[in-house]
Design a protein that fits this description.
single chain, alpha+beta, Rubrerythrin, domain 2, Yope Regulator, Chain: A, six-stranded antiparallel beta sheet, three-stranded antiparallel beta sheet, 4 helices, disordered N terminus, disordered C terminus
Length: 255
């Protein structure tokens, strides 16, 4: 039988550098002298090695059952592909945490104040990914706001409460105000309605919030959509953007 070339022998002998612990338990190997394979699933009946014995668990004096070559003459013939790295979980929708936080504020602080509309409830409406952020509408018994939440939780926590910044949405530029919310972190708010006494039913408030979000995401007529909002608050805006209920229901926010 023809022996392997010196280059091939070096490859065989260096396939696991003499360290059997480098070999996967179910990897098959092949003798570099006579090409006899060793399959852990089959073991070696010549040496009375039972099936299921990894190459690393073979006795130190084990040799090729065909040509008597030593263990270090074997090279890894094949090995299972490494398991793929676990996929990163998708960014968590912040709707639940936002609603939970505002419900706590409603119970502990707002329910006894004059601007609280008891006919309404806290609800997060339509939150979706927008650039590096989440964009949606928060409805509460005392306000309705467009809200930006960072895609990375806590990314804006270094921004002071009350800092104003302008953000580009498809329908135009809008002023948002930073505020810290327990359990969520710093978020950015654009006021649409406050107080909420115009709304007598939750369903009407929800429909208005859905219309507001659709209007925010609709490009201005004849203009291309603006780029997504930046991942952090932008420079202070020169003046606030006023949004009236009439404008909202017509879907014509001013930018």
């Amino acid at each position: 039988m023809t022996a392997a070339s010196p280059a091939a022998q070096n490859l065989f002998e260096g396939s696991f550098l003499g360290d059997a612990t480098r070999i996967a338990p179910d990897a098959r190997l092949e003798c570099g002298i006579c090409w006899t394979p060793y399959d852990p699933a089959e073991g070696d009946p010549v040496w009375q090695i039972p099936p299921g014995t990894p190459f690393a668990a073979l006795p130190e004096d084990w040799r090729c059952p065909t040509c008597d070559a030593e263990k270090h003459k074997f090279m890894v013939l094949d090995a299972p592909a490494p398991a793929p790295a676990p996929a990163e979980p998708p960014p968590a929708d912040p709707s639940g945490k936002l609603a939970e936080a505002y419900r706590g504020i409603a119970r502990k602080v707002m329910s006894d104040l004059p601007l609280y509309n008891p006919r309404l409830a806290v609800e997060a409406v339509g939150f979706r990914r927008y650039g590096d952020s989440w964009l949606g509408i928060m409805v509460t018994p005392w306000f309705m706001n467009a809200v930006l939440v960072p895609g990375v939780p806590g990314a804006w926590n270094g921004t002071r409460d009350g800092v104003k910044s302008t953000h580009a949405l498809p329908s135009g530029d809008y002023e948002f105000v930073a505020g810290h919310l327990d359990g969520v972190g710093t978020i950015l708010n654009c006021s649409l309605f406050s107080p909420m006494f115009e709304f007598q039913e939750q369903a009407v408030a929800r429909q208005t919030a859905e219309a507001a979000l659709a209007a925010l995401l609709e490009p201005e007529s004849g203009a291309e959509a603006s780029p997504p909002s930046p991942a952090a608050p932008a420079a202070p805006a020169p003046a606030p953007v006023e949004v009236s209920r009439r404008h909202l229901l017509r879907g014509s926010f001013g930018g």
